[in-house]
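Hey, resending since the last one bounced:
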Amino acid sequence: MKILIVYYSRSGITKNVANILKEKLDADIEEITDNNKYSGAIGWLKGGFNASTGRLSEINPISKNPLHYDLTIIGSPVWASNIATPVATFINKNYKDLTKVAGFVTCGSGGGEKALEKMSEECEKQLEATMILTSKDIENDLDKKINTFIDKLKL
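The structure tokens again:
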């Protein structure tokens, strides 16, 4: 099965998880980038506002076409109980090219369920598998959570 992992990461946490998945699944990987500045406290507030109001951003082009993959795993931080604005923009531009989709989110403590529901709605597909990683999970159970997510994929 040919797998693509697509993710956005503001702080590097989602990127780290995406790279672990890439290694464990021997998948291709693509980082979603945009020209908005979401760093620092102002960027955090801006990101939460944009996500909660459904605003999209201008993301930079990606090099891999999701249409050429059997499964796309989408990773996002949780912003105001939503997927990050760059991830929402990626899905908006590519949802018709997504064959099967799985999703994971990283968050401080909550909002992951709502964010994954939003991801599924935006993709117009039921997610094959989901994973919510809180700060506590990342510190204590990361490998176990990732292995459970991979098992749910039924590869």
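The CA atoms of residues 7 and 140 lie 22 Å apart.

Sorry for the duplicate.
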